[in-house]
Amino acid sequence: MTDPNDLFPEVAKDPEIAARQRAFSRHQHSMVGVGDANNERYTLAPTLEQCMRFAWVDRIDIDVAACPEAHCADEWLGRQADGSFRDALTCSWTPRAFPMHPALRPRPLIGWCNMPYTLLLEFMERAMLAMVDRELDILMMLPPGDRCEQPWWQTWVEPYRDGRGHYKGVVVETKCLPGRQKFGSPGDPKGLLASSAPFPSVCVVLRGPGSRTLR
């Protein structure tokens, strides 16, 4: 697949424009079914509760990387129960029951994302664009905590995290979770037979303009 940055060299240095060009390229090449890659790691309640406490939220309105066997909200993106597929990399992250325009929403919209580790950059880019476009107000993400040298972290997290700045009004908060998390899996969705993951996890919270919580 051609790198969109090669097609648009004059805008490649702007991370948001480059991300949008990559999203366009993915759509043009009909890249579908990526959400099912996340089926290897199902989020368990203890991990989810840690992240929700850190983010100071009490609910999740949409899970943007899920499947029928494992989802943390009534609405999710990815493979649906009827066999259809809602691709998180191309469709809106605003839950269907809520207005698209932020001013018309009865409450802030909160999302959860335990993305496929093979698509960390794609999901981090899509997440930041969703926040800039006000598709969500608060988003919790659960990437691995041992890959901070990689482009997805260095481009979208490191420059803005924990008071270092913001990206077009979007602020980033991080918390390294203690110990090693356990995940469910196909055939063991509750993680009853799971052992601890061989990697640490970090909770990344994105807050859109006007949705910051005083800590």
Strand segment count: 9
Instruction: Kindly provide the name of the CATH class of the largest domain.
Output: Alpha Beta
Helix run count: 5
Order of helices and strands: HHEHEEEEHEHEEE
Q: What's the architecture of the largest domain in CATH terms? A: 3-Layer(aba) Sandwich
Poorly predicted ranges (pLDDT <50, ≥5 residues)?
1-12, 24-39
Report the CATH topology name of the largest domain: Rossmann fold
Shape: globular
Distance between the termini: 44 Å
| Helix-strand makeup class | alpha/beta
Helix content: 10-25%
Q: Kindly state the mean pLDDT as a whole number? A: 82
The main sheet orders its strands as: 4-3-2-5-6-9-7
Number of domains: 2
Question: In percent, how much strand structure appears in the residues?
Answer: 15-25%
Radius of gyration: 17 Å
- Largest pleated sheet: 7 strands, mixed
Task: Compose a concise summary of this entry.
This protein is 22% helix and 16% strand. The protein is α/β, with parallel strands linked by helices and 215 residues long.
